[in-house]
């Protein structure tokens, strides 16, 4: 009985020990440090870029003519098609010419009457000329004859002027186009009474080829560019300075290039802007007066420009532009920079960075300042995997996608003796050798 009780007590003590040893046999994950995150970087290299401003503008017709009547009368005919092209000198409207034709006839009759009086005055003077030498007529009679001839000549000239005026008024009954261009809708109809020098036009004609584009630029930006040119930060681009490109309201690029003609000599006090005028060819009449466009003007050239892709520039809580820079020790440093303007898909950085520095452009969500990273060369968007944007170092290789996570090594487990086991799965079961040893000890006792 005593031996049996001893066996039970030994078994009660050994069962917890077996369970503890079995638990010790389970695999425990390694507490080693995770690998450094991988980020894509570019190495800053100074470039020569053209500084181009995109400014708002409105199209304006090259020539505008408001057609108004120069004589009064009833409109008899409309001879143009609304919205069509007209040529200079083409007849647009016909005003009733009856009264002006009659006025011309009256003026012509007055001219003939004046010419007849002139003939009589000439003959009288010629008749008195030899008589005055013989004192057959008085000096006063001869002087009256000379004056009558001169007055008759003046009457003829006045009558001729009246005839010319009547002819002009008769011609004005045919309303002609003063310029070539596209005519709008008719503002009067047949049967309407029009008067000389009325304020309402009969129609509007606009010449659309070429066409003006009035561009507005703030006086502040103009002064800043002038200072940069004076300080040598920018150099004038003599080849492209006068060339202007257009982007239409729907985002399409206008195929024709324009030339900058002049800049206003004063600033609009209500807007603080200066108007620049450019001229564009418009052979297809694609541009119409009053359209909103965006014009691209080349202001100068910068030879030491540092460009950073837009995806690599973020904003802090103060609204300042920041970038992540990888130092020589492969640790990340946050840098506040000045992002001056967008050129293509890049920011032009004017302060805060230096050439040959490495800037993170992909993988920003995986890092924070002070973290050690593994830098690889950034791949240009849309490029093949083997093409790199810029070198990131001698050991750089093409970067993976920005959301790729580094693969972790297989988990190692440590047994009771401190040695590594083969895998976590194989170490989950209790050790068989320990159980057999305990069972033999119980049986022996």
Describe the structure.
Helices cover 28% and strands 31% of the residues. The chain has a six-stranded antiparallel barrel. Strands 6-5-3-8 form a four-stranded antiparallel beta sheet. It has six helices and 19 strands. Helix 1 runs antiparallel to helix 6. A hairpin with a 5-residue loop joins strand 15 and strand 16. With 445 residues, it is of the alpha+beta class. The protein is elongated, with a radius of gyration of 49 Å. The chain has helices at 2-24, 98-133, 139-172, 219-231, 424-427, 432-444; strands at residues 38-43, 47-67, 73-78, 85-86, 91-95, 174-176, 181-183, 193-194, 203-218, 243-247, 258-263, 273-280, 292-309, 314-315, 321-326, 332-343, 346-351, 358-362, 374-377. Among the domains are: 2-30 and 411-444, no CATH class; 38-51 and 304-377, conserved putative lor/sdh protein from methanococcus maripaludis s2 fold (Beta Barrel), CATH 2.40.420; 97-172, Helix hairpin bin (Helix Hairpins, Orthogonal Bundle), CATH 1.10.287. The two termini are 14 Å apart.
């Amino acid at each position: 009985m005593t031996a049996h009780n001893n066996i039970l007590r030994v078994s009660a003590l050994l069962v917890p020990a077996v369970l503890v040893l079995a638990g010790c046999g389970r695999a425990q994950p390694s507490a080693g440090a995770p690998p450094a995150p991988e980020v894509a970087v570019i190495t800053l290299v100074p470039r020569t870029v053209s500084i181009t401003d995109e400014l708002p503008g409105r199209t304006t017709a090259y020539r505008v003519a408001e057609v108004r009547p120069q004589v009064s009368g009833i409109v008899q005919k409309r001879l143009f098609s609304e919205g069509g092209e007209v040529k200079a000198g083409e007849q647009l409207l016909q005003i009733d010419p009856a009264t002006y034709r009659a006025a011309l006839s009256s003026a012509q009759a007055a001219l003939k009457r004046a010419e007849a009086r002139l003939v009589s005055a000439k003959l009288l003077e010629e008749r008195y000329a030899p008589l005055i030498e013989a004192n057959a007529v008085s000096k006063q009679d001869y002087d009256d004859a000379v004056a009558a001839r001169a007055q008759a000549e003046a009457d003829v000239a006045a009558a001729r002027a009246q005839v010319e005026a009547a002819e002009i008024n008769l011609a004005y009954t045919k309303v002609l186009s003063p310029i070539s261009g596209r005519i709008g809708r008719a503002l009067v109809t047949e049967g309407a009474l029009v008067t000389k020098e009325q304020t309402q036009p009969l129609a509007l004609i606009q010449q659309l080829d070429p066409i003006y584009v009035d561009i507005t630029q703030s006086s502040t930006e103009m002064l800043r560019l002038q200072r940069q040119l004076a300080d040598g930060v920018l150099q004038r681009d003599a080849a492209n300075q006068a060339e202007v490109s257009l982007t239409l309201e729907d985002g399409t690029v206008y195929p024709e290039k324009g030339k900058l003609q002049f800049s206003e000599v004063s600033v609009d006090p209500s807007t603080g802007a200066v108007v620049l005028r450019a001229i564009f060819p418009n052979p297809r009449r694609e541009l119409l007066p009053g359209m909103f466009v965006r014009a691209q003007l080349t202001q100068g050239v910068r030879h030491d420009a540092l460009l950073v892709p837009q995806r690599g520039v973020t904003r802090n809580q103060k609204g300042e532009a920041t970038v992540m820079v990888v130092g020589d020790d492969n640790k990340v440093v946050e840098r506040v920079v000045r992002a001056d303007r967008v050129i293509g898909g890049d920011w032009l950085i004017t302060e805060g960075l230096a050439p040959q520095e490495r800037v993170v452009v992909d993988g920003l969500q995986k890092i924070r300042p002070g973290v050690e990273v593994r830098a690889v060369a950034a791949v240009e968007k849309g490029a093949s995997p083997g093409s790199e944007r810029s070198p990131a170092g001698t050991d750089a290789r093409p970067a993976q996608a920005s959301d790729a996570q580094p693969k972790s090594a297989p988990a190692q487990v440590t047994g009771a003796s401190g040695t590594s086991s083969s895998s976590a799965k194989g170490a989950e079961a209790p050790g068989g050798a320990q159980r057999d040893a305990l069972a033999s000890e119980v049986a022996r006792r």
